[in-house]
Every structure is written in C-alpha cells, then in structure tokens.
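Appendix B, Record 12. Input sequence as logged:
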Amino acid sequence: MKNKFVKIIGVIVFLVIFLGTIFILPDSLNKSSENNSDNNKVLENQESSSDIGDINSDNEKQDTNKSNINDEQESNVEEVIKDEENKESFVTLKMVGDVLLHTPVSDSGKMSDGSYNYDHLFKNVKEDISSADIALVNQEVILGGTEMGLSGYPAFNGAYEVGDSIVNAGFDVVLHATNHAIDRGKNGLINCLDFWESKYPDIAILGINRTKEQQDTVFIIEKNGIKIAILNYTYGTNGIAMPDDMPFAVNLIDKNKIARDIEIAEANADITIVCPHWGIEYTHTENSNQTELATYFAELGADVIIGTHPHVIQPVKWVEASNGNKALVYYSIGNFINCTSEYGNTVADRMVGAIANVTIKKASDGSVIISDYSVTPLVTQMLFGTAEITTYKLEDYNQELASKNEVITRDERFSYDFCVNLCNEVFGDVKQE
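Logged structural output:
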C-alpha cells in the first residue's frame, strides 16, 4: 500500500513538472525575449536619437553656413552694385596735324620695285597713335591715286598707299575738309572716297561727301561707354568751286550748318569735338577770326576744338562763352609731315608740329569732363630718298639728328634747341609729353 502511494506521488510530480515545462517556461522565455526586444529597441532608439542629434547638428551647421554664404553673396552683390555705381570710364584721344604731301614726300614712298609704301612717315609715332582709344589725322591733300599722277604744290594729289600707312599706324578717323580737298576736281575727290569706302569701310572719313545725306550725318563714335561726336570743316577750297552736281562735296565753315550739327551732336553724344581748318598760315598766334569762331563753337556746346591749316604750332587755351560753356582749344597743331621747297625765316617753324592729347572721363553720375590734356611736340626730319623722310617726337630728337636735317639748307635758324625753345614759347604752361 505504501509503495503504491509512493508511485502515485511520483506520477503527480512528473505531471506537474511536465505541465510546467509546457505552459510556464515558454511564457518566461517570451517575456525574456520581449525584455531583450525592448532593450534592443531602447538601444536602437538611443542610437537613432544620437544620429538624429548629429543630423540636426549638421543641418544647423549647414544652415549657418548657408546663411553665411547668403550673407556673403548679398555682400558681394552689394559690392558689385556699388562698384558699378562708382565706376569711372576714360577715353584717350590723339590727333596729329597736316600730312602735307609735297613732291619729295610722295616720292619717298616709291620703292625699288615700283610699288609704294609710306609706313616710314609714321614709324616713330606708331606706338603712340595705336595706343589711343581714338586717333585722328588731318589728311591735308586728296588721295586720288597714282592713276591720276602724283603731284605737289599747288594742286596736290597723293597715292592711295598713304591711306594704307595711315591705317597701319592706327588712325581711326581721317579728316579731309581742307583747302586742298578739290585740288584735282571731282574725279580726285571721288577716287579718294572710293578708295576709303572700298578698302577701309570701318575708317571714318570726315569733311568730304558723296551725297547730301552724308554731309547731313553727324559722326558719333562710342568708346568705353562714352559717345564722342567729331565734326570737320574748312574755311575754303582755294577758290575752286564745288562740282556743279556736288555742292555738298566739302564741309565749309558755315555757322548755320555748324549750329545744326552741334545741336545734333549735343543731343546724342557726351562730348563734341570740332576740327576746323582755319587761321593764317605760318603765324604762331591765333587771329580774331579763330577766337571768335572758337567762342561761337563753345557757346553752341563744343567741348574740344583742334585746329589745323597754319602749318605751324599755335597756343592751347580754354575759351568761355557768354553762356558759361567752356571749350579746350588747340588753335593749331602744325604739320605732321612736310617738305617745303621754300627758303627763308618761316621754313624752320614748319618742321615743328604736335600731337594733341586729350583724356575724356565719364564719372559714376554720368557727367563727362576733360580730365587731362597735353601736347607731344613733333619734328619733321627732312631727308631726301626712298623711305628717308620721317617725323620724330621731340623727346626722341637730338642735336645730331637736327644737324642732318635738310631744312638747315633752307633756314639756318633750325636746330634742336630751336625746336625746344619754339615749343616752350608757344605752348607755355601746357604739359608737354
């Protein structure tokens, strides 16, 4: 009985353990798994929270950097706008006087092979001319070409190749309104216009006209944001009448026409430059007609006046009109090149010319002024032979060169010191370069 009871107790214990294994242990394991899972979730959340914190931190840094970049960009934009508002612009303008093709000058361009070349005339000033924003030359005589026969005083005609060398030297504007413009009649003038228009259409040719429309057109050139009007007139044409069918062939000094032209220039340009062919030959002092006309041009609004025709240098002065307008006046810048056959006391003076140098400034407020001006004295070195005659800047000239200048045989006063003293006397306090 006792053994039977023991067996019954053993069975009960076994069943309890067995049932506990089935029902209690899995629940415990599940709870343990859930705890582990919860712990893992906490760790993940902690890591995720840490990453989010880093991302937020990075975003904050990026936002700060973006803010700094935007501020810097805005600052740069403001600086650019400010620079644009304060920006100044300049134009340098240079002009030389009469290219006077006396027979020895024309002959100097004939090469050994029969061709023509005149680069030697400009070789010593080419760097100065080509460096200017705008360069002007007074082409004293018509370029009708060798087909018409080259000729000197009194009825001039030059070779087309002179024009080639003018362009090679760096000139932008050629002035043809001179007393010699129709020395060879209508044919010479038409030949000259044909040459320029066909070969160098981008070079401005002023003072002579193919049509009335051309004569009525005011030339305006824009450089560095500054618009410059350039006008060219002559006092006459040596008594030679205009061609019957071309009364507009040459621009004459006519006050009514000039008033109209300057009015157009003033309405469309920042600066107006008038280039008159005027004055009395071989005199170093401007006459009353020049001063009266200069004042008239200033009254109309002209800002700069650069004169030619006297074949010698004359003073540089400011004139003021009754309305308060002022103009800078170069009364005469003399010859650029010449080889006169005359003798006597005015011949040495004709060897001295000048480059007119003008700097035009446009301020940030749009106002335009002449900010600087000067002269560069020149000397024609009269020599005979192929490619010999030329022009030097006075600063590059010396007594040795002067002693070889053929002009001494025509006027014994000529010397290096003569040239220096003449420039000092005529130009006075004007800056010489």
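The radius of gyration is 44 Å.
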